[in-house]
Design brief:
Length: 307
């Protein structure tokens, strides 16, 4: 098993067709079929099931593909850097939760592209629970996430602490603009994602500390859907102010600060602890830190540095 065989494997899986994969790899289809057969013989099991429209990975194929993706990505980045005299190159994959993506992602993408044009940046959006799973599975080089647990097999670097606010539809709360005790906020009808996503875990832990049973109905997994339901007056939610700044400015949503106590969550930058980062990954991490510092310093992100 060598890197060329793993690249062939990933290309076949991506194309779902040996003939299309051969075209992409600029090789003859019989040669690619033989390469796949040698790989299957080596691992002792079929990696793809053939059907009328192409091929589909078997269970063994999916397992090997998941392991091969980070290996091929790291090798490709290293190969490109060596050819380019250590200039960052290749591909780097970043996972980011929706709320952080709204504020941070445009700045990071623009700055990183300008400084490192030879690196292909791939961004995957998902709640923190998914970002953690993808990091642990090797699908990501870096992940931005909320409330990662130490000892999770990830190297963690704190970015900021971000207070949450109660988000409601205009006119649904006569006390809009006045602080609200957290315990009272938790007894309102809240629209939140399900566990184990970071926001929900944070809310459940706060409710347990206060001895309150939160009213969560419905559970919704997408940030746009959550904000849309709240705007229709179907419930409230808890989010950082930056996540709803546009809607508040347009009059579609309102917010109230939380007190006695407040509720905040820590944003961290994470990478797999057992993997040496490529130069491209290191440069992306630096860009994230620099842009967070800039957004905090200019007041564009209502948060503060971890104490």
């Amino acid at each position: 098993m060598d890197i060329a065989a793993l690249r062939a494997l990933l290309t076949i899986a991506d194309c779902a067709s040996i003939s299309r994969a051969a075209e992409r790899l600029d090789t003859a289809q019989p040669a690619l079929s033989r390469q796949l057969k040698r790989l299957e013989d080596e691992v002792g099991t079929p990696l793809f099931a053939r059907h009328g429209r192409g091929v589909k990975p078997t269970a063994a194929g999916r397992a090997l593909i998941a392991r091969a993706e980070p290996l091929v990505r790291q090798f490709t980045s290293l190969e490109a850097e060596l050819k380019g005299n250590a200039t960052p190159a290749g591909e780097v994959v970043l996972g980011v939760p929706p709320t952080a993506a709204l504020v941070l992602l445009p700045e990071v993408v623009a700055d990183f592209a300008a400084r490192h044009p030879r690196v292909r940046l791939k961004v995957v959006e998902g709640f923190s629970g998914f970002v953690t799973e993808w990091l642990e599975a090797g699908r990501l080089d870096l992940g931005i996430l909320y409330h990662a647990a130490p000892g999770s097999g990830l190297h963690l670097e704190p970015l900021l602490d971000e207070p949450l606010v109660l988000v409601s539809a205009p006119g649904s709360d006569p006390q809009t603009g006045h602080p609200l005790p957290l315990a009272k906020a938790l007894t309102r009808r809240l629209i939140l994602p399900s566990p184990p996503h970071g926001l929900r875990v944070l809310v459940d832990q706060a409710a347990a500390r206060l001895g309150v049973r939160p009213w969560i109905d419905p559970e919704v997994e997408g940030l746009p859907a959550i904000k849309g339901l709240v705007a229709k007056g179907l419930g409230d939610t808890l989010l950082p102010a930056a996540a709803v700044a546009e809607e508040v400015a347009a009059g579609r949503l309102t917010t109230r600060h939380l007190e006695n106590p407040g509720l905040s969550r820590r944003l961290v930058l994470a990478r797999p602890a057992g993997r040496t980062p490529t130069t491209a990954t290191t440069r992306l991490a630096e860009t994230v830190h620099n842009q967070v510092h800039h957004l905090l310093a200019t007041g564009r992100w209502p948060a503060h540095r971890p104490t």
